[in-house]
Amino acid sequence: MGFLWFGSRLKASFSPLKAIGFALISPSTLIGALSSMSTKTSIIIDSHLHVWANTEESSSAFPYAQAPPDSLKDRASTGELLKQMDAYGVDGALIVQPINHKNDHSYVLEAMKSHPDRFKGMLLHDPSLSEEKAVEQLEDLALKGFVGVRFNPYLWPKLEDGESKWAPMSEGAGLAVYQRCADLHVPVGIMCFQGLDLHYDDILALLKKSPNTKMILDHFGFTSVENADNFAKLLDLAKYPNVYIKISALFRLADKSPYNRVRLERFAPLLQKFGANRLMYGSDFPFVLEQPEAYGMVRLVSSWIHNDQDREMIMGGTAEQLFGPWGVSKLE
């Protein structure tokens, strides 16, 4: 495990005493802690979920930018998530900034501060910012403990050509942030909600312009089991060593519980092509709560993996390789 080097620009303003998740650690304490980590056989990390304020929290301190669905409004708070994690033995989680709080990261930051051993955060990039301001936001939130960036392409301006096209992520502020993420060792997750094919050329452009940035595609790249061409495109991305796939939100792929088509036609080929060290499990909480398995989806996906080493990577190891070990904040 290496140490993050934040680069000259961020380094100038970096103070270990101010940054979330950093502490002054004696060599003996560090060696002992790392030895203890190395003997831990497995850890379960939920690499994709959201939290937002419940009704009471939103009215008192954390207002919504966009109202959550009524059925989940009071089921996605930090407290509710912890109940689910504890019930199913999930050790840690990567909280992806929800659209419900949009560019106000205070609720996720509060969750990270209150439970630093359980939660890490992935910030939401704001495409309306200038290149300079966008990179400043990235650096500021990285100092506060965020370990990833989410690109939601539908927040970019839509092009007026009558087609489903948006301004490219691979230009301007989006590219500046993506390239800076390589320096900071901060992965970028991309949500291709309306289909991988709509953003494929843009994704290829990002990979070409910044080959050292680690890219994560959410929810199997949104490659429905009814769209073989899209899935072929996803498999072709395996040739780029910095592309990772989230084995998450099975219910978004046009299959039904127990998701046998997802298992056979999506998960198995991805495991063969990418390998376990580039796949990671995610629940898509709280939306998963409306599925038959609910948060127990973690057990279903784990049951698909018959090799112990592959299971350890997909269910937690890959996430820790990308985002750092969970529980480090306990070290003093």
If you had to describe this structure to a student in words, what would you say it looks like?
With 332 residues, the protein is an alpha/beta fold. It contains twelve helices and eight strands. It has helices at 7-13, 27-39, 55-60, 78-87, 106-114, 131-143, 172-184, 200-209, 228-236, 260-274, 297-303, 308-323, and strands at residues 45-49, 92-96, 119-124, 146-151, 188-190, 215-217, 243-248, 279-282. Strands 1-2-3-4-5-6-7-8 form an eight-stranded parallel sheet. α6 runs parallel beside α7. It is globular, with a radius of gyration of 19 Å.
Major sheet: 8 strands, parallel
Report helical residue fraction.
Answer: 25-40%
| Strand order in space, largest sheet | 1-2-3-4-5-6-7-8
- Structural class of the helices, strands and pairings? alpha/beta
Total helical segments: 12
Q: What's the Cα radius of gyration? A: 19 Å
Summarize the structure.
The chain is built from twelve helices and eight strands. By secondary structure, it is α/β, with parallel strands linked by helices.
Comma- or semicolon-separated keywords:
alpha/beta, single chain, 332 residues, 8 strands, eight-stranded parallel beta sheet, disordered N terminus, globular
List the helices and strands and how they pair.
Elements: H1 7-13, H2 27-39, E1 45-49, H3 55-60, H4 78-87, E2 92-96, H5 106-114, E3 119-124, H6 131-143, E4 146-151, H7 172-184, E5 188-190, H8 200-209, E6 215-217, H9 228-236, E7 243-248, H10 260-274, E8 279-282, H11 297-303, H12 308-323
Parallel strand pairs: 1-2, 2-3, 3-4, 4-5, 5-6, 6-7, 7-8
Helix pairs in contact: 6-7
